[in-house]
Amino acid sequence: MKTELKHEQESLEALLAAMQNGADAGLAQLEGKTDPASTRRRLVILLQAERNREAADIVRDQQPHEQWIELAIQAFGSNGERDNAERVFLVSQKLKNRIKCDKCRLTFAEVLFRGAFAERKPGSSVSPYILTEAERLTLAKVREVLMPLLLLIEANKHVETELDQTVVELGLKVSHLLGEKLEPEKLADLLATRTPVSMLLGEAVLARWIKMPKDLPGRLQRDHPKSFEAKIMAALLLNVVDGKPDSAFELAKGMVGDAKDEADKVQLFRVLDSLADDLSAEESESAKNIALQLLPQAHFQVKLLKANNLQKQGYAAEARLLLEEIRDENDVQWLQRWADINLQSNNGEEAFRALQRAVEVFPHPEIYERAAQVAITLNELAEATQLIQQQLFFEPENVRARWRLATILGKQQKYHIAAEHFAVLQTLQPEEPSHAFNRALSLEQAGDSEGSLNVYEVLCKSIGVPVEAYIRRAGLLKAKNKPEAAFEGLQAVRQQYWDHPGFVGAFLEIAHAAQKDMPAHEALLRLQQLQDEGKIEGALRQISLDEVKGHADEFREKRESLLRFSIEGKVPWLAVEQMLGRVPYWGWFLRTQPIGWLGDDPLVCAEFTIYSTNGFYVRRRQDKGSLEEIECSQQGEPVAVDLTALLTLHRLGLLEKAAQYFGRLLIPSAYVQRILDESSRLVLHQKSQKTSLVEIKKCLDGLRIKVLEAEASKPEPFPYLSEYAEEKDIRHSYKIRDVAEVLRAAGQISDSKYSEVFTVAHRPSTVDHEHPALKHTQSLVAELSTLKTLQNVGVLEAFIKYFDVHISSEGRDELLRDVRGIEALEEVYTWHSQMWEQIRSDARFVQIPHAPRTKRKTTDDDVDREVYLSAYLLAKQEKVPLFADDRACQTIAFNENKGSVGSVFGTDKLLHQLAASGLIRDDEFADAYLKLISWRYRFLMPPSAVLLNLTKRYLSNPPGKPLREIAHYVHDCMRDAGLIAGFEPTDPPASVAVRSFLQWVNTIAQFLVHVGNDVEISEEKADAITTWAIHELLPSPPKMVGQLLAEAISAMHPRSVISQALICLLYSNDHERGNKTLRRIARNLGLSEQDYSRFLAEVINAV
After folding, report:
1. Which helix (H) or strand (E) holds 80?
2. Staple 159 to which of 194, 653, 866, 951, CB 3.0 to 4.6 Å?
3. Which residues contact 425 (CB under 8 A, 6 or more apart)?
């Protein structure tokens, strides 16, 4: 016992010597001593001197002792030896002394906490949003180690000891950094039970980790009456949190005499400086004067204050010079002042850089907010999003910040995430209907029509609903082809919003779509009334025939200009459709519809053609280039998919196969936000038109309306009924009111129906002495539009029963054309809906927004113009291949990536890979290719295997219909004005048109070799196929290359075919069949024996 006391006394003397004369003096007194007390004092001295490696070496090979075991944990942890620290910690937990066990647990947790950030620069700040995964894992370990201690303290519901206080403080820091929402508040409440109150609570409140506990400023002053730091914190809390700058100023003034050293004076100076902006003018000046008396004029803080005053007085240049003089990018105040001066000088980029640095130095919600505001003005939306998210971590109930975030997310096309934030806003402000409206609108933009409708349904039953909610809900229902439900929703609130022009306009549109013509007519009259009252301008106006013709001429010129650009490969075909006002799927349908004969007019051909690919691209290698055939990307490699390719895949039924091949297909979010608008445009805008046409066609099919053929109508044999004939038309025409008068007089229609007819019978009667009233069973010819009007008002049946009704052959043709057009529109609507439903329901199709081409602020018009480039921009952003059935997009992408192999391709190349990988059968490959050809996709080159597959289906009578279609296709391609004939920047220069021609020749030669080698094809059939192919399938020279070059490459026909055939046969083992094939080809080419032998010799010598 005496020995232990002696060791304790000697070691304590050594510790005192270290404190008075330095670490080495104390260590010298402990030299050679290994007793527990001496070891403990030696560890204390070394750790205080931050000589961590020496401390760890002392205990490295020793058995841990209860007297110094927690110091051993600290020594190993401070030296970066986490494993050794944990080993000693585990030993400590077997001690019987529970207090020592708890101390060791806390020490190990502190070691882990400090070690979590060991890789960071000293003094750098840490916040939840910038943690690495390794740091998060370490913090989770800290919480795991602390948990037994925290549970005991929580069970006690009171923090009693300093050890308890340290445990809860560490737990509070960890829970904040791990991004937990509720745990920090719970631990803060627990920590607030400690007396004296913890200073960390004040720090946490100011940093916005937690809400301020009750009377915290008062408790800080009472519990720490002699603490300068506690008073400083109390003053800050009074001003910043409680909003009591006057009370904070009184407290600060009383602290002037307590500021003993420079550090105290700097803290007080900053408090007074911050108070100056919140006090009255007189007190503000007093606060500044007191602050200026605390520090010398040359001090950093004083100059910072002077710079701020100079800036406010308009001396920006002088303020900038002063700030440059005291530049300190580790001081958050200087950084904010520097940002202010740069904002005043319109240098937003430098201001933003300064604020970004400020949040690194001091992560605080107010600084995050300022930085985000500057980022928004610079259109740096991604950075603004991240900054506001960090702000919301501290202030999750900040409505303004969350609204700003949701809005920015919408601008970035991240509509689903925006909707989530609007949903949070709904819970924060349930009485504010705009949040629900914005949420529904965001879901609508995200393509989630059902989710959007659900929100609208609830919103439209609440109070204070914006009229736009009813309008958008109706538009959504119409887009889902439910116009009747849309009309019912608007009809229910009609009286409430009948003075709102936007509502009345929507009501008119929806009523027509729902076949509610009378309410639609009432809406039209209401719009006219609102216009007459001056509440709207230009909603309705009559236009002259000359204006109509002028608009038609403008449209024709625009169309022709766009088609010429398309022919030249300068604009995507999807862009042409968009600029002509067509929905993409409808545009695709019009271009690919079956047409018997297109002719040679380049503009007509361009309008009904898909310019999907050039087939080749320029691949650049250093300073040289070569013309290469386009190739598909590798299996399992994600791609960005252009809308043109999505349309093609859907019509081929290959969306699923494409997903299997690529794994992930990236879809621009810009496509998704247009789905509902495009759906709405594919829905009939006036459903009664369809009903009228169908009913008239039934009457026509049942011979209740007869057709007057063109030959029989000259001279006009019967009276003519046309409500819409021009007055200057020399042909007399009866009007609807003339028919209505007769039908009412004959008792065929009621008085009410007669009145209803007069709502559409706007033209005056034309009955006169030369044109008497119509009579029962009288034959007459009715114009189609007039028949539709009669059907719309419900008198067509009475009309055709009472009169002998005819329609001209032109009217019949127009009727059938209109019926087919409506059927086609409905079919395309179904295709459009099915395609997007399949894409939305498949997780392999991933919606991703792309950044705009420039960082300037974008408008809706910019987005519309860029939508046809969205996939290209997405491919560039995500660094993945572009999959597009549009040669203009392909060319733009190839020019961007300098012709990287597999970086850009279309469906034609994907089909090759699907067949090669076994995802589709050979028959499916051939059928799909044939469909592309029938849809006039230019400029495809089917492989010889496809030609052989199609041929063998018709061996009884070769070549068969498919090959004849391909023959027409190849000649159409060679005649097409869109085939690029100019020379590309290659070495030597090469032409796409010539390469396409030669590729066709080579493919056909390979095909004929396959025919000759196929044992299932008899020689007789092979002869027939070869003869037909040489004379019908071989391409003519490209039209666009000019006569001289055309003649030159035409002369190469025989040599090219024989050469390619011979090359294919070099690897054949059946020489006899090969020889027959070559001679068969030569004979059909008209080669003499001498030319044939010469060509063979040249090829063999070349090989």
Report:
1. none
2. 194
3. 399, 402, 403, 406, 432, 435, 438, 439
| Distance from C-alpha of 359 to C-alpha of 335, rounded to nearest angstrom | 10
**Of 894, 926, 850, 908, the residue nearest 645 (C-alpha):** 908
Does some domain include residue 1037?
Answer: yes
Tokens of 988: 């030597």
Question: Tens digits of per-residue pLDDT, 132-177?
Answer: 999 999 999 999 999 999 999 999 999 999 999 999 999 999 999 9
Q: What is the token pair recorded at 181?
A: 């929402």
Element at 859 (helix H, strand E): none
By residue range, what is the domain housing residue 993? Answer: 943-1103
Cα angle value 773/775/781 (rounded, 5°): 85
With the C-alpha atoms ordered 290, 294, 296, 301, is the resulting torsion angle positive or negative? negative
Are both 707 and 793 inside the same structural domain? yes
In DSSP terms, which residues pair with 883 in a beta bridge?
641, 905
Distance of CA 909 to the CA centre of its chain: 27
- 170, 109 Cβ separation under 8 angstroms: yes
CA 1043 to chain centre: 49
Where would I find the beta strands (DSSP E) of 809-926?
A: 845-848, 882-883, 904-905
How many Cβ atoms from other residues are within 10 Å of residue 1046's Cβ? 20
Q: Are 421 and 456 in contact (CB under 8 A)?
A: no
Residues 760 and 790: their CA atoms lie apart, in Å, by 9
Token look-up 């409140």 returns 205
Q: Half-sphere exposure of 1046 toward its Cβ, with a 13 Å CA cutoff?
A: 12
Query: How far apart (Å, rounded) are the C-alpha atoms in residues 1036 and 973?
Result: 10
> Is residue 834 in some structural domain?
no
- What residue ranges in 885-989 does DSSP mark as E strands? 904-905, 937-938, 983-984
**What is the C-alpha to C-alpha distance for residues 542 and 581, in angstroms, rounded to an integer?**
23
Length of the chain (residues) = 1103
**Residue 905 φ then ψ, to 5°:** -165, 175
Kindly state the tokens that stand for 488. 């019912």
> Could you tell me what percent of the chain has a pLDDT over 90?
61
- Side-chain half-sphere of 680: how many Cα atoms within 13 Å? 20
Is residue 510 domain-shared with residue 554, that is, in the same domain?
no
410 and 343 in one domain?
no
Q: How far apart, in whole angstroms, are the C-alpha atoms of residue 94 and residue 748?
A: 107
Dihedral sign (CA 288, 294, 298, 300): negative
State the pLDDT confidence band at 1052, using cuts at 50, 70 and 90.
Answer: confident
Q: Is the pLDDT of residue 854 over 70?
A: no
> Minimal CA–CA distance to 700: which of 608, 613, 819?
819
Structure tokens at 259: 């500021």
| Domain-located, residue 957 | yes
Provide the token pair at 345: 């000088």
What radius of gyration do the chain's Cα atoms show?
A: 42
Our count of domains for the chain comes to 7
Q: How far apart are the first and last CA of the chain?
A: 104
The CA distance from 474 to 477, in Å, is 5
Structure-token match 């902006």, residue found: 277
Pairing type for strands 624-629 and 616-621 reads antiparallel
Of residues 347 and 181, which shows the higher confidence score? Answer: 347
- φ, ψ of residue 928 in degrees (nearest 5): -65, -40
Residues 370 and 290 in one domain: no
- pLDDT reading at 2 higher than 70: no
For strands 665-668 and 845-848, give the pairing. Answer: parallel
Same domain, 446 and 506: no
Confidence of residue 861 (pLDDT cuts 50, 70, 90): very low
Confirm whether 102 is domain-assigned.
no
Residue 304: DSSP 8-state: H
Buried b (16+ CB within 10 A) or exposed e, 811-849: bbebbeebeeebeebeebbebbbebbebbbeeeebebeb
- Alpha carbons 902 and 617: distance in angstroms, whole number: 11
Secondary structure of residue 706 in the 3-state scheme: strand
